[in-house]
Amino acid sequence: MNAIPDNADDVAHAAPLVTIVDRVVARGDGARPAIWTDDGQVSYLRLLRLIRIAAWRLWTLGLRQEDRIVVELDDSVEFVAAFLGAVRIGAVPVPVNPWADLADYAVEHSGARVRVTDRVDGVGPCQIVTGEGLIAPPPGDLDIGLPPIRIDGEDAAFWLYSSGSTGRPKAVVHLHRDIAGSCDGYAGRVLGVRSGDVFFSTAKLFHAYGLGGGLLFPLWHGASVAYLRGKPGPEGITRTIARHRPTVLFSVPALYHAMLRHRSGAERFQSLRLCVSAAEPLTAPVWERWRDAFGLEILDGIGSTEMLHIYCSNRPGDVVAGSAGRPVPGYELDLRPHPGTPEPGAGELWVRGPSTFDSYWRNQDATREAFQGSWFRTGDCFRVVDGRYWYLGRLDDLMKIGGLWVSAHVIESALMAHPLVAEVAVVAVRAAAMSRIKAFVVPARSVPETESSALIAELRRWCADRLRADQVPHYVELVDSLPKTPGGKVRRFALREREEPSAVG
Asked: What is the DSSP string of 131-171?
């Protein structure tokens, strides 16, 4: 058990996440930039001051150890102060998407006592404070010291809501002991993070992938991070990279492809030394186009909210396009037989490691189903070749067509290799009382209605030349966009639900 510090002299005596900023200040690097925004930079010393102010203000609002606080903010200094200020007093931050209607549910589900939001019209059973109000200077020379609070590795650190792609999102409880394994094993040993790195994550801080790449990893290693407000798009991403010159980029396949279509000059990306991808599988064609355009290899990996971040990844200088790479140091992966795998040797992926979550809040059935001892069931189908893992799809997304199991991911990868395909999602639909394959395709350019039939026929021929007969889509529909979760995953169930029994395309 450890006492929470009131100043940098005590940093050696507190849980690592509590003192993530204190440690940088204590070693004499307080003047170094911690955060870059459009308003300028915030030093580690200034950030520590804001975290302490936030912690004091939350304490005065009555927040105590293990109390939950819903953080409904965009990526910002205010988010970091709210998150780490809560952690500093032993409270449990619960980040949520500021553009979705999840906050009211999260407040009720978590029993939160405080909600930090810039949507000041919010009402509910808890106290509401704005991000700016949380870090506003206290009156006069008010002492913002805090009473000693004991925090150790078994205490709750934060919650993260799962994407909820098939129903109400589950609250994933992470403990303080979970943090070091991901920050050291993945960010430290796989990425080789340096204190001089500048991070930029297009995935937002309310998502596990974004929380790692946009807060935990840079601050843990004494690096800095650039924030982009609003929903990320090619123009904003390119502008942020040009302005703040990050060295490490975390993004998702759809945005990597969107940046390729945006055709920004390669000189704008010259500051980057590492590009990371997760949330959705990165197809080999997108990887190759990015490398050819910018001279950078994208490090694709597997991660999840339950495991906090990436636990299997390609390495710098050791990348195979289309593969998810090898296990991150400290993690074990196991492929187990499962009915319905689409090819011999494939299986369901189980994983265990130092960042495994503790439980789903108030959902014992789901928690029991997710674990077998210390092993976590991912629900993903993989095959392994020469120690590298190859994604075949979610088990829920595997399709039984004509008595054979088919991987949607294999079909999507084939279609993504076509130069006129920007994005694609494949699902099974019912037609004439039979299961059929339907591909929803976002074209890489505008397609006149008079040309759509020809493109659809071309895409089906393209698949027929590259896939087994049972893998060729029966239907292809051209769409403007695909429905996605806030983390960037395609909501395939939404595509299935919109289809009538007599699908046509």
From this structure: HHHHHSPPSTT--------EE-TTSEEEEEE---TTSSPPE
Helix and strand counts by DSSP (H, E) for the chain:
15, 28
> Domain range holding 93?
13-175
pTM of the model: 0.90
Q: Supply the pLDDT for residue 504.
A: 44
**Domain contains 278:** no
- Phi-psi domain of 488 (left: phi exceeds 0; alpha: psi -120 through 50; beta: other): left
pLDDT at 94 over 60: yes
Percent over 90 (pLDDT), the chain? 76
Q: pLDDT tens across 136-175, in order?
A: 998 765 566 777 889 999 999 999 998 755 567 899 999 9
Average of pLDDT values for 393-405? 85
Q: Which residues contact 466 (CB under 8 A, 6 or more apart)?
A: 414, 417
- Spatial strand order of the sheet with 326-327 comes to 40-43, 33-37, 224-226, 198-201, 248-251, 274-277, 298-303, 310-313, 326-327
Answer whether 421's CB lies under 8 Å from 455's CB.
no
Residue 80 included in any domain: yes
Q: How far apart are the first and last CA of the chain?
A: 62
Predicted local confidence at residue 7, as pLDDT:
38
Q: Are strands 298-303 and 274-277 parallel, antiparallel or unpaired?
A: parallel
- How confident is the model over 194-204, as pLDDT tens digits? 999 999 999 99
Distance CA 29, CA 220 (A): 13
Final residue in a domain of this structure, among 175, 210, 241: 175
Can you give the pLDDT at residue 167?
Answer: 63
Domain count of the fold of the chain: 2
- Per-residue confidence (pLDDT) for residue 101, from 0 to 100: 85
Work out whether the CA dihedral 494, 498, 503, 505 comes out positive or negative.
negative
Q: Are strands 248-251 and 198-201 parallel, antiparallel or unpaired?
A: parallel
Residue in 481, 496, 410, 415 with CA at minimum distance from that of residue 254:
481
CATH number at residue 84: 3.40.50.980
Q: CA dist 14 to 2, 93, 260, Å? A: 5, 18, 45
| Residue in 34, 28, 32 with CA at minimum distance from that of residue 47 | 34
224 part of a folded domain: no
- Which of 175, 196, 212 is the endpoint of a domain? 175
